[in-house]
Amino acid sequence: MIKEEHDLPVMGASQGPAPMATTVINIQTETSVPDHIVWSLFNTVYMNWCCLGFVAFSYSVKSRDRKMVGDLIGARTYASTAKCLNIWALVLGIILTLIFIILFFTGALVFSINTFHTLRQQRGYR
């Protein structure tokens, strides 16, 4: 591999009477606005209690559309709403799923106990 070295003049005070001209370049970095579309899609498919996942998904799509147009403030607004809806959808989904599981197993337990008592009583009448 060939390496080339170049001597660069050292920047310093200007050598002549002419004033030094400066140039300022403003480079805007592309601001990343999260649109939470994957999280919203997950909540739409798996945790769609009260349709909050679907509403969050629609706000995520709106946020992505605003970002593509260049409206970062609108994209942040829609993304913030989508994030809030995703949090609520996830929390309600977990809570309601746990309640459903508890009620299901409690009902199964009560059913099995009642069946056991019914069978035990029927044996006594024979």
TrEMBL record:
UniProt keyword terms in alphabetical order: Membrane, Transmembrane, Transmembrane helix
InterPro entries xrefs: CD225/Dispanin_fam, IFITM_antiviral_protein
GO biological process, one term: negative regulation of viral genome replication
GO cellular component term, pick one: plasma membrane
Transmembrane domains' residue ranges: 37-59, 85-113
Localization, UniProt: Membrane
Superkingdom of origin organism: Eukaryota
Family: Belongs to the CD225/Dispanin family.
The protein, known as: Interferon-induced transmembrane protein 1-like
Native species: Panthera pardus (Leopard)
